[in-house]
TrEMBL record:
Alphabetical UniProt keywords: Heme biosynthesis, Lyase, Porphyrin biosynthesis
Signal peptide: none
Protein name stated in the entry: Delta-aminolevulinic acid dehydratase
Originating organism: Rhizobium leguminosarum bv. viciae
Species classification: Bacteria, Pseudomonadati, Pseudomonadota, Alphaproteobacteria, Hyphomicrobiales
Enzyme Commission number(s): 4.2.1.24
Similarity comment: family membership: Belongs to the ALAD family.
Active site residues according to the UniProt entry: 206 (schiff-base intermediate with substrate), 260 (schiff-base intermediate with substrate)
Amino acid sequence: MQDRTHLVDDITGHRRMRRNRKADWTRRLVQENRLTVDDLIWPIFIVPGSGIVDPIPAMPGVNRMSIDKAVEAAREAAGLGIPALATFPNIEMELRDETGSNSLEANNLINQATAAIKKAVPDIGIITDVALDPFTSHGHDGILRGSEIVNDETVDQVARAAVMQADAGADIIAPSEMMDGRIGAIRMALDAAGHQSVGIMSYATKFASAFYGPYREAISTGGLLKGDKKTYYIDPANGTEAIRDAALDVEEGADMLMVKPGLPYLDICWRMKEAFGLPTFAYQVSGEYTQIKAAAMNGWIDGERAMLETLLSFKRAGCDGVLTYFAIEVAKILAKR
């Protein structure tokens, strides 16, 4: 029998990586990570009024919705198998003030939306944020006193707001304002109010990123922001600090952890999952979404492939799920497979 050994066989020791890539069935058989509809959380934006579906120019394909339209969207999401929504309000400017006091109104826009969605679509999860930026006249996530975002007073307020959001039917509180001690304070407040079953998804590592711009347009805070958020968001250069921050949230009782933004911080996703073993999520933020959409609209990339590839990268980095504005689009694609 003729020896057909090739130089490549000698070089590789007869180990050829392409064997497992030779056909679709083998590639499927050995695939390490899979994206499913169960990995998706859909962030949506709520506005006052009724019958409103208002396109956001900086986020092609994303709309602000009145509560009735958000209920319809929730039904669609549930029908596609999406597990949960994350809701963000865009309230009237006249209701915004220095302290974000509207966050403490039991019947405010975010709580009305929660109650309406849970009544109409009880099996879909509702994740709400208690950061004050949608409620403040200055666009910051906390209470502004002079030139300082005051930590402790903000913590007191977001803990109270968390209870009201749980009262309205929120399943998970996701505090994103990055104040020290907020997770423990919210846990204590929820438990004291009888909401032991309400979870906390901590924005454990929220970076002072350039990728938030379109989101700020969506909730109308971009033009309001005085200064920047570097005194309470994490420096993008600091990975070890981010893990320390997450460790404190774990100690204080967080049930789940989030990394925000997502794609520029895949290393943080991996390190957090390895360090703590808690359910870990990434937020594929507005700037990440818009980059893909804009490039696809210009014909520069294959938008569908780029969308799915980036989402799969979060799974490879150890994430259990992703908050993404692509959720509906992806769920429809996955349903056809």
